[in-house]
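USER: Fancy drafting a protein?

ASSISTANT:
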Amino acid sequence: MTTDSYCELAKPIRWQTQTELDATPTPVVRQIVGHNETWAEVCR
């Protein structure tokens, strides 16, 4: 796929399980939440 659309390239990041989320360091969780919030604002 060739595209330059942010919305096509930057899909939301989701955890598969609560255990996976629990194992993710807090700073990484903050970055992912920020990414997902940006995606929601720009792409919806």
In short: The chain has a mean pLDDT of 91. The longest helix spans residues 26-43. The chain has one domain: 6-43.
